[in-house]
Design a protein that fits this description.
The protein is mainly alpha-helical. The chain contains 3 helices and no strands. The chain has one domain.
Length: 66
């Protein structure tokens, strides 16, 4: 559970900003979005393979342009 405590002389906006950063850093939202719908194992493997191919192509492209 992500929590923040109000620091002395800290505004509510800064408190909210720190809370949002902690939530993003913990990865809670990405897990919730990923688990929103059921995805079969075969579909997950297909998506992961597609991501890996895209990542490899991106690495090769950046090395060529350097």
């Amino acid at each position: 559970m992500t929590s923040v405590t109000l620091r002395p002389n800290e505004s509510q906006d800064m408190l909210l900003k720190r809370f949002r950063k902690k939530v993003v850093k913990s990865g809670v939202l990405s897990v919730v979005r990923r688990k929103r719908w059921f995805v079969s194992k075969s579909e997950m493997r297909r998506v992961e393979k597609k991501k890996a191919i895209r990542r490899i192509k991106r690495r090769q492209f950046t090395r060529v342009s350097e």
